[in-house]
Specification:
The complex is a heterodimer of chains A (114) and B (114).
Chain A: E1 4-7, E2 10-14, E3 19-25, E4 33-38, E5 44-50, E6 56-59, E7 62-67, E8 72-77, E9 86-92, E10 108-113
Parallel strand pairs in A: 2-10
Antiparallel strand pairs in A: 1-3, 3-8, 4-5, 4-9, 6-7, 7-8, 9-10
Chain B: E1 5-7, E2 10-13, E3 19-24, E4 31-37, E5 44-50, E6 53-57, E7 64-68, E8 74-78, E9 87-94, E10 104-105, E11 109-113
Parallel strand pairs in B: 2-11
Antiparallel strand pairs in B: 1-3, 3-8, 4-5, 4-9, 5-6, 7-8, 9-10, 9-11
Classes of the chains: A mainly beta (114), B mainly beta (114).
């Protein structure tokens, strides 16, 4: 059974810092991996999709890497801003059930102060 | 273009009642998934439907059921509600295939069971 762990669980940083969020998963036979952000009480907003054949993906100030063999992904946020405050979730696409399901960790809650 | 839309946004039920949640996918998306997110946890996969057929099912009791209509919209039904069913229910869609492409979520339906 796929399990996803995200470290740290919470993170507080001043505006302008660069930061790294970590995600590990137990079954390396994943299809793809997606990173999301979730604001309190809201739905999930997709940030990046990393295909299984890719090692990284970039969008603006965000860069995500994927190392399937070690079961790890990282999300790098450059020059953090208060608007980045949210919970960040990583979700590998599980090979069970023909890849129909994303498996989520509990997320990392980020707070960026101005 | 409209994103994934869900209704109702909030609802309150009592134990033993039945609830129906509705979802419209992004135009052109044929795959719809349902997730349950209890407070403090990551979303947990319930079902995926593609072309009106169930393609994946998570570890939920038979009180949970779903269906997809010819226009690709979907309903999630939960019978005999329990207090533990209180959660944010998220619908997501992807295209073009059953398990390829980025997954996009709606804002969710917040269910409270008293």
């Amino acid at each position: 059974k796929q399990e996803v762990t995200q470290i740290p669980a919470a993170l507080s940083v001043p505006e302008g810092e660069n930061l790294v969020l970590n995600c590990s998963f137990t079954d390396s036979a994943i299809y793809n991996l997606q990173w999301f952000r979730q604001d309190p009480g809201k739905g999930l907003t997709s940030l990046l999709l990393i295909q299984s054949s890719q090692r990284e993906q970039t969008s603006g100030r965000l860069n995500a890497s994927l190392d399937k063999s070690s079961g790890r992904s990282t999300l790098y946020i450059a020059a953090s801003q208060p608007g980045d405050s949210a919970t960040y979730l990583c979700a590998p696409q599980d090979p069970d059930q023909a890849g129909t399901a994303l498996i989520f960790g509990k997320g990392t809650t980020l707070s960026v102060s101005s | 273009d409209a994103g994934v839309t869900q209704s109702p946004t909030h609802l309150i039920k009592t134990r033993g009642q039945h609830v129906t949640l509705r979802c419209s996918p992004i135009s052109g998306h044929k795959s719809v998934s349902w997730y349950q997110q209890v407070l403090g946890q990551g979303p947990q996969f319930i079902f995926q439907y593609y072309e009106k057929e169930e393609r994946g099912r998570g570890n939920f009791p038979d009180r949970f059921s779903a269906r997809q209509f010819p226009n690709y919209s979907s309903e999630l039904n939960v019978n005999a509600l329990l207090l533990g069913d209180s959660a944010l229910y998220l619908c997501a869609s992807r295209g073009p295939g059953v398990n390829t492409g980025e997954l996009f979520f709606g804002e969710g339906s917040r269910l409270t069971v008293l």
